[in-house]
Amino acid sequence: MSQAFAAVKAGEESLLCRSYSRYPVAVVRGKGARLWDADGKEYVDLLAGIAVTSLGHCNDEVNAALAAHAEKLWHVSNLFYQEEQLELARLLLSTSHHQKAFFCNSGAEANEACIKLARRYMRKVKQRDAYEIITLEGCFHGRTLGALAATGRENLSDGFAPLPEGFKQVPAGDIEAMKAAITPATAAVLVEVVQGEGGVVPLCGEYLRQLEALCRERDVLFMCDEVQAGLARTGKFWAFQQYGLKPDAISMAKSLANGLPMGAMLATDEVARGFEAGSHATTFGGGALASGVAAKVVEILLRDKLADRAAELGEHLKRELAAMQTRQPGKIKEVRGLGLMVGIELAVDGKPVWEELLRRGYICNLSHGITLRLLPPLNIDKSDLDGFLQNLEDILAQIPA
Ligand SMILES: *Cc1c(COP(=O)(O)O)cnc(C)c1O
């Protein structure tokens, strides 16, 4: 452990709440897909702040937009009209079938907005006392009490009871279980098209289509959590577009402002009727600065066709990993994912592999101790992915089968 790192680590332990277990790296600087630590060591960042810096660290164009907006206006609150929100709303709505946007500050908040809108739409517009939200096992929707109730994982809610009522989980991929779970009290079904924190688990397209049809048949809202998979990452602008779905509302956050805290919900005109002036609010949501930056991010994602690039690079990664799986028998159990959201489930202990990658300067996430999760910037050079592949194969080749 270097002195520089030890000092940061000691500071963290004495000053911050014990809420995170961190990687043994103190990051001081970033550019594009590169990070540097306190000792000057360089890393290839294949995690992008957990799918946040999709345009790379300290992107020049985003920096310029940030600087320009910083000189113009930071924050006035939602008591005022702000052109920046409209510009961002126009751009986002041009990418989907929705007509209305609501801005907030995080993924959990975007899901809270979906949950609150679904309940209020049912009560006030449909005149039905339907409030229950059904989610899928293995999902992740955030850490506020409502989002935690939606997530429903006991290890995450340990010590925090009571959670809000009106949530239940069913097994993913089991349409019969969903049929049995929907009752007259059900307001909405909320799903991730690719479960991210769950270990990069893409749901089957046929199941998702059946699920949406079931929601229509039972007059229940169908909502997608696009916080991690959205905004061009999976190879379509929205992950739900992979299967021609038309969710009533979607949540997004992570890469929306490339690292500034920013979240949003998009909804159809019909379902957006659930909110009236005063129904839901946030002080910071859609602030001029964050909205101005987010509009630039969305503009670049569209202009540079980064969804197509994510699809191409994702195919390349998956093809190469499948070949590696054959060349290195007994090392890789499964390669999953869509676009640049890739999970490599190992057949060997994941921790030493992840540690050796980090030692060699490749940052990725280790999910459930067994799955290497890659969420690189969408504009990453192909050669960086190839460098990762070479190092991974070299590491796997040295492990006895
Ligand atoms: C990260 C994530 C969230 C929570 O977002 P926060 O900004 O941490 O609140 C919600 N849903 C999904 C799918 C996520 O990946």
UniProtKB/TrEMBL annotation:
Metabolic or biological pathway: Amino-acid biosynthesis; L-arginine biosynthesis; N(2)-acetyl-L-ornithine from L-glutamate: step 4/4; Organosulfur degradation; alkanesulfonate degradation
Cofactor note: Binds 1 pyridoxal phosphate per subunit.
Gene Ontology CC annotations of this record: cytoplasm
Cofactors (names): pyridoxal 5'-phosphate
Residues with the N6-(pyridoxal phosphate)lysine modification: K254
EC numbers for this chain: 2.6.1.11
GO molecular function terms attached to this record: identical protein binding; N2-acetyl-L-ornithine:2-oxoglutarate 5-aminotransferase activity; pyridoxal phosphate binding; taurine-pyruvate aminotransferase activity
Note: May also have succinyldiaminopimelate aminotransferase activity, thus carrying out the corresponding step in lysine biosynthesis.
Quaternary structure (record): Homodimer.
Protein name (Swiss-Prot/TrEMBL): Acetylornithine aminotransferase
Organism: Desulfovibrio intestinalis
Gene that encodes it: argD
